[in-house]
């Protein structure tokens, strides 16, 4: 992975309803040093976020200049500097619909991953803090916090231009600002192409169907291997590779699970972007009401924990030592 191009521009509306001003750089940053470190921190934060959405450029691409400008750059019809400067003008126009004040830096970067170019765009806010200077005086300073990605976009050029996927455009928005999210999605020309919850549900149903054909002791180990791999991929911000997972769960027949999955997928694909919340619900059973809260690993279900459907009762064996001590102590008091 290497940083090939990078530049930082500025955009600002100082007070609500005021004119938007842009501060456009006239040269690229060096692809090493502080900017490379900052970009990598933003890239990792973007990659690991569970809030990302996957999609593609919409059919009405004339509403966004990003696809055309990115294509021209990739085909060497324009420079990286020209592309980003023009996009800043387009961003300024898009933000006219948003009246709140803002003061942001926009990082544009081209990253090379395994000889495949990827365009990243990050909206960077400064955070105010207090420092003690060398004269032991308190003063306010602004700093960049790369752990908080306000907005981010990623375009995978190869998947887009070769039309091998409808998930080549990734967007990460702000949770608490739906109006600004809408403006930024319009700026990117983003159209959602993937329902992660639906895709995860289908994948987990396939995992369960595969487990049902195994002896109980093998199925337990298999589920554990699958979840360990999936959660590790999610933690790294990477999709589940069905072929890689198939090899990990059965090295004697490394394609068996992959073939089983492909036959049952609505839209057969090797890479699956999973929903973190749904994965965790598969690993653990949880529930609560006003007077009761309970959570346990799915590995315990059917063995140490049994659900009696006739009586709508949950039978728990081998309860945790600390809970047992509390129950015994309570009984003695009674």
TrEMBL record:
Alphabetical list of InterPro entries matching this protein: Nucleoid_associated_NdpA (IPR007358)
Keyword list, A-Z: Cytoplasm
Cellular location(s): Cytoplasm, Nucleoid
Cell membrane keyword on record: no
Chain coiled-coil ranges: none
Family: Belongs to the YejK family.
The name this protein goes by in its record: Nucleoid-associated protein YejK
């Amino acid at each position: 992975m290497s940083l090939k191009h990078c530049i930082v521009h500025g955009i600002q509306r100082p007070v609500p309803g005021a004119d938007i001003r842009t501060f456009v750089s006239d040269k690229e940053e060096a692809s090493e040093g502080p900017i490379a470190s900052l970009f990598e921190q933003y890239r990792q934060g973007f990659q690991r976020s569970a809030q990302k959405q996957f999609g593609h450029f919409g059919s009405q691409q004339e509403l966004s200049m990003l696809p055309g400008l990115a294509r021209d750059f990739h085909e060497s019809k324009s420079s990286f500097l020209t592309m980003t400067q023009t996009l800043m003008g387009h961003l300024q126009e898009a933000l006219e619909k948003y009246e709140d004040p803002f003061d942001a830096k926009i990082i544009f970067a081209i990253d090379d991953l395994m000889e495949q170019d990827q365009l990243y765009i990050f909206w960077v806010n400064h955070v105010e803090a207090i420092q003690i200077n060398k004269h032991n005086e308190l003063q306010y300073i602004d700093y960049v916090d790369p752990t908080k990605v306000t907005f981010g976009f990623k375009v995978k050029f190869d998947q887009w231009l070769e039309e091998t996927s409808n998930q080549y455009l990734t967007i990460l928005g702000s949770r608490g600002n739906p109006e600004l999210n809408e403006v930024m999605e319009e700026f990117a020309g983003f159209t959602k192409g993937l329902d992660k919850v639906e895709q995860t549900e289908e994948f987990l149903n396939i995992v369960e169907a595969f487990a049902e054909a195994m002896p109980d002791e093998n199925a337990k180990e298999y589920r554990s291997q699958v979840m360990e791999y999936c959660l590790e991929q999610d933690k790294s911000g990477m999709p589940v590779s069905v072929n890689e997972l198939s090899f990990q769960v059965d090295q004697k027949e490394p394609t068996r699970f992959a073939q089983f999955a492909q036959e049952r997928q609505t839209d057969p694909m090797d890479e699956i972007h999973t929903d973190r919340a749904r994965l965790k619900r598969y690993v653990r059973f949880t529930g609560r009401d006003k007077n009761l809260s309970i959570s346990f690993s799915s590995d315990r279900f059917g063995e140490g924990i049994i659900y009696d459907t006739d009586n709508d009762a949950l039978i728990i064996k081998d309860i945790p030592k600390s809970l047992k001590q509390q129950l015994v102590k309570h009984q003695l008091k009674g």
